[in-house]
Amino acid sequence: MHLILTGATGLVGSGVLDAMLKTKDITKISILSRRPVQMATDSKDPRVNVIIHNDFATYKPEVLRELAGARGCVWALGISQNQVTKEDYVRITKDYALEAAKAFSTLTDEGEEPFRFVYVSGEGATQSPGRFSPIFARVKGETETALGEMSTKISTLQADSVRPAFVDASAHQAVQKYIPDPGLMMRSMITVLGPPIRSFYKSGHSPTPILGDFLTKMAMGKVDGQIEGPGAFRLGGAWIVENVGFRRVMGL
Fold this sequence. Notes:
Helices cover 39% and strands 20% of the residues. By secondary structure, it is α/β, with parallel strands linked by helices.
């Protein structure tokens, strides 16, 4: 199976890439990235093709030709709302994802299994924002809703969303040297809050080895019969899988 990955240089994306590299059923991994992906280079895996792609708002025919035959995508591209303006956050978080889902839906034909687009959202995303809801909660919730609507209207697309919580790579040696430095403040918070979350708030814990495996399996359609249950709900034609739902499916 041929899968697409974005955000491969980030925390979640690195975990997904590791999972994809370990999955023998995957015959090709197409990574869309603005820059070379060191983890992919170091893997020396012939299945990996890094496509340098500078504009995630458009997909020219030559790019789609390189993606031909792909059956699914893990969309792990993202950025913190604290790093960019509101306008840029909406463009990166919402607009890019919707344009990609629309473009990738053309990679499969009517009557075939729909293209599986797995959007990495986040715990706290909401379809009912309140007065004090942060930008990320509103924008990711809007993106989930739009993808659910697209899944209803476009027969060649199944666009589901997953909401990780405390994404934790502390026990994931394979990605340690590749994940971005979160900065002094975030490192300090992880040092203080990490242990109690891992021990006492497990429902909010998203260990990257298992999260990456889940997202990969979801893009491959391998967990379809297990998603329904606590921590997952339908939105339009798509599934929204909360952190507790992901943990349930993976036996955590």
